[in-house]
Amino acid sequence: MKLLSSFSWVPLSVQSSTPKAAVPYIQQWIGAINLRMDKKREEGKELSEKEREGSVKFKPEVHQMRQLVTTETSGGWESCWEQGLTPWDLGRPTPLILHLHQTGALPKGRALVPGCGSGYDVVAMACSERYVVGLDVSHTAVEKAIELSSSLPNSSHFTFLKEDFFTWQPPELFDLIFDYTFFCAIEPEMRSRWACRVQEMLKPDGELITLMFPISDHAGGPPYKVSVSDYEEVLHPMGFKAVTIADNELAIGARKGREKFGRWRRDTTQSLL
Fold it and tell me: Which of 56, 60, 96, 213 could pair covalently with 259 via S-S, beta carbons 3.0-4.6 A apart?
């Protein structure tokens, strides 16, 4: 396992070409999103940037979200989206994903984003060489994702489905699974099941990319605290080893210093013994 101080190192084995034409309309799309958010802030319907990027421990929005998720029998995620209690939603693509996509450092083929929410990362990764599926259990989240992205030039390269990651049966396996704020949203007791599903849905030579957040010592959840060892504990029994573990230097706001970037692949040497 390579332990790195930043994610700027890109393994040659996973580099792929990225269409240059994809960048301009993604940038325009991000700009439109930012304008929409600015307008909502002016109307008093959106949290300030300081609040949105504030501490997971102390934001009132997080405490309200926790109450819904832990008290409603259905899990409460639909209610969170209906009420706009989505503190995990950055309102734009994850900077790290944009970096990896634009530098050609993401695997080609089929990609899966569980708990995709508004779908920003799904859209940012989608191109002629990569078809991306976004899953979410919330009907409202899926509707929002479709509304935000259906008119984009790359819309034929992604789809959004209202499905449960733990029960959904994909018609094809994936070359890439990207997890950010999904692992930390499920109860810790479900993490082994999460790893099992990753193993079931990923091709033998596929790759799991994780943004590990929040790396902290706070109590309760969601989001539940995570550590690199939490991922290793459930992924190692499934045959996965970390190719890269690095600090996420593109983390936003108060998330800086509390995120790590991981690339995981199956340890094929064991199967050959």
Answer: 213
State the CB neighbour count (10 A cutoff) for residue 183. 25
The tokens describing 143, both together, are 């509707």
Cα 57 to chain centroid, rounded: 20
What's the average pLDDT block by block, 10 residues per block, for the chain (273 residues)?
38 38 61 62 46 51 87 83 91 95 96 98 97 98 96 96 98 99 96 99 98 93 96 98 97 92 87 45
Distances (CA, A) of 246 to 206, 230, 258: 20, 15, 11
CATH architecture, range 2-272: 3-Layer(aba) Sandwich (3.40)
- Look at the chain and count its residues: 273
Q: Give the three-class secondary structure for 178.
A: strand
Q: What are phi and psi of 158, to 5 degrees?
A: -150, 160
Instruction: Report the alpha-carbon distance of residue 236 to residue 253 in Å, rounded.
Output: 31
CB 14 within 8 A of CB 265: no
Pairing of strands 158-162, 130-136: parallel
What lies within 8 Å, CB to CB, of 196 at 6+ separation is: 238
Q: Check: CB of residue 273 under 8 Å from CB of residue 32.
A: no
Amino acid identity at 54:
G
List, in order, residues 6 or more apart from 33 with CB less than 8 Å away. 91, 92, 120, 148
Domain boundaries, the chain: 2-272
3-state secondary structure of 115: coil
What are the distances in angstroms from CA 260 to CA 216, 223, 249? 12, 15, 9
Residue with tokens 């695997």: 107
At 27 the three-state DSSP class reads helix
With beta carbons less than 8 A apart as the criterion, state whether 14 and 263 touch: yes
The 10 Å Cβ neighbour count of residue 204 is 11
